[in-house]
Amino acid sequence: MPTMRAIAVKGGKGPATNLYVDKIEKPVPAAGQALVKIKAFGLNRMDILQREGMYPVPPQAPETIGVEFSGTIESLGEQTNGGFKAGDEVFGLAYGGAYAEYIVVSTKMLIHKPEHLSWEEAAGIPETWITASQALFVIGDFQAGQSVLWHAGASSVSLSGIQLAKAHGAKAIYATVGSQEKIDFLEQKLGVTKAFNYKTQDWAAEIQKATGGAGVNLTVDFVGATYFQGNLDVAAKDGRVVLLGLMGGVKLPDGVNIAPLLMKRIRLEGSTLRSRDEDYQAKLRDTLVSQALPRFADGTFKVFVEKVFPFDEIVQAHQLLESNTTKGKIICVIE
User: Which of 121, 129, 141 is nearest to 292 (CA)?
Assistant: First the structure.
């Protein structure tokens, strides 16, 4: 059987230093799938959790980590077209398997790569931009003239979401980050109304001040338990809170006051993307193609790439992601 290089984890789970380049069987595309020779892949926080054995991987996912990639179609499964052919340059979203030389993926989750996007930029789009648009529009019901707060404001999903909210007529965009450098970046480069340093400021009190006590219409949160009270406090009447992560833990601190949930009619909803079925993901992919791709072409939307690593420096790439110092995507390229 033909083999390929792929990133594996020694012992099945562990720290970044357990990642290594392995040889595994090269996948074969089934009906409705394409075999893509990968040029670049993006790193995501879920990759760290999966590496540590703390992420519930969908049953259809291969063991290999990684959900977003760019590359060239090598072959298609029987009776597969979907507007694609061998040789097409594509990028896309997968249930797993992107940390490898080849991947098989449904053509429903592939997008033709525009010439003006580099392989590295294209590999950093699918997971982050689809997650951001899902949180903003599908779950968060964001409308023009509303305000939005992005926690982990310099994360790739938030950078995408900030640009989407701005393009769709946000009244105000707020963010929380962990350094003055990130505040300057968001306010000066992305036009965020106001960003707050959660390490040195009471972000909830500052947002109440900034909004004159009115609060924000939508909050997108990756932190969870430690931000729960603050999210309720800063929510506007009929506000929404979309929970996408649990970086701050799962157990609520003592003394949390849930009265605002009732008094302000707050809607709190959790959401994931990877566990969704293919048709749901395909609809989000279509939204990305119709709404975002033209804006990448005219320069309205940008993919912020923090650093590019070669395939065999995956340990260093994961360590950088874990440092929480990045502003944008970390990408690996396969030469």
Answer: 129
pLDDT in tens, 27-67: 999 999 999 999 999 999 999 999 999 888 888 899 999 99
The whole-angstrom separation of Cα 292 and Cα 196 is: 27
pLDDT band with cut points at 50, 70 and 90 for residue 287: confident
At position 307, the amino acid (one-letter code) is K
Alpha-helical segments (H) within the chain:
45-51, 119-123, 126-133, 156-167, 180-184, 203-210, 228-234, 259-263, 278-287, 293-297, 314-322
3-state SS, residue 143? coil
Domains delineated in the chain: 3-125+274-333 (3.90.180.10), 129-270 (3.40.50.720)
Q: pLDDT tens across 218-230, in order?
A: 999 999 999 999 9
Instruction: Give SS3 for 186.
Output: helix
117 and 100 Cβ atoms separated by less than 8 Å: no
Look-up of token digits 């390229």: 333
Tokens of 93: 């979203």
Q: Which residue type is seen at 272?
A: T
Cα separation, 75 vs 79, in Å, equals 12
Residue type, 314: I
Q: Using only the alpha carbons of the chain, give its radius of gyration.
A: 20
